[in-house]
Amino acid sequence: MNFLLYNLVLLLALPLIAVFILHRVFISGKSRKSWRQQLGGVNLPPELANRDRIWIHAVSVGEAVASAAVVSELKSALPDAAVVISTTTETGHEMARKSVKDADAFIYYPFDLALAVMRSIKRVRPVVFAGTDTEIWPNFRHIARRMGVKNAMINGTVSDKTLAGAARVPWLYRWTLSNIDLFCMQSQADAERIISLGADSQKVIITGNCKADQSDEPICENGKNEIRSRFKLSVENRVFIAGSANPGEDGPVMDAFIAARRNHPDLRLIIAPRQIERRDEIAGIAHEKGLSCGWRSDPQSITGTEDVMLLDTFGELAQVYAIADVSFVGGSLIPKGCHSILQPIAQGKPVFFGPHTFKAKDLAAQAKSAGVGFEVQDGVDLGRQIDGLLGDSAALEDIRARCEKMMKANQGASKRTADALVELYMESKR
């Protein structure tokens, strides 16, 4: 009944869905490369034909990176099985290819239309499917289970926004979650929340946050010097890095930088936009504020005298945090939910974030409790707190030690997650 009701709703919305897909393919171009696979036209490499497959879906760019350690553990435990990684966006697909070195194939996740889902599952033929976070597509979960696929949620978290959405359609969440065999949640709070939404408590375990395992080890001084050379910076330069900045955050970040630089004239700002195609827009904002700007993608534009440098490349941010004195993580001054704060913490750096941390609520609370994460309300507050911290070298050194302690406390989640997936895989063979 739930399956029929959900698909009746999709049928009524089909004209709007068609317009949405056509817009993504022909106007925005966001699905230009992926739409055939998203409609079920998946083709795996022929060498995987006779191997069991584990399908892992990474919801976001951050989850794609986080899944790398899980995949490595799976390949170690099940060397004969093939691991297929799917993403929704082309940006996520590109990042997954760069980050998940041990995967055997990369595909796009289907639209949650019954025919597209059935085509994809028939072509991939997974023994186990595991989706990260709490993105639950009802048709996929239901059809996968009906086709004999073991279903899991990994690195699971339940935000306030998810709870609010589930309250509007509780029957949809209860039905969808009933099709999932295993819930690997990041924290006790996440476990309690997923149970409140309808998950079977006997299927819920706490494995921790896999992103902690994927975070880079602290970079040595020679490595930091190499990174500084990319930006023509000296060791005397203080560096403020704003990572994963979204529209609406660039201006406040630059205002904070300008305010902090009054007492720290050697300060430089590196902005890594969440959407690298926004390079010209961000440069325009900088110029309006009287700030000079260079681009990492154009090394000749960086001379070392620029106020602001844009990190408009993929895959560098996690290591570039190593040269920061202070950092800010975006998606938090606007109601986006906050991106990964573990990357700067892994490099021993204090991290500032705004009040909108609903996607990383527990992690943000942990960072604040550990004394390495600091919540700000706006650009003015950010500038004031950065200014104060840059003037306290003892506090910065203490934060470095606190960061190391916090990262050690979060390690091991990927192995625990992989072990649980291996057990699920073994159950399918019994």
What features would you describe in this structure?
The chain is an alpha/beta fold and 430 residues long. It is 47% helix and 15% strand. It folds into two domains: 32-208 and 412-429, Rossmann fold (3-Layer(aba) Sandwich); 221-410, Rossmann fold (3-Layer(aba) Sandwich). The protein contains 20 helices and 14 strands. The strands form two sheets. It has a seven-stranded parallel β-sheet, sandwiched between helices. Helix 4 packs parallel to helix 5, helix 4 crosses helix 20 (413-429) and helix 6 crosses helix 7 (138-146).
Entry keywords:
47% helix; Rossmann fold; alpha/beta; 7-stranded parallel β-sheet; 2 domains; 430 residues; 14 strands; 20 helices
Q: What's the short story on this structure?
A:
With 430 residues, this protein is an alpha/beta fold.
**Radius of gyration, in angstroms, nearest whole number:** 22 Å
User: Given the C-alpha coordinates, what overall shape results?
Assistant: globular
Q: What is the topology, as strand order, of the major beta sheet?
A: 3-2-1-4-5-6-7
The stretches of 5 or more residues where confidence is low (pLDDT under 50) are none
Helix fraction? 40-55%
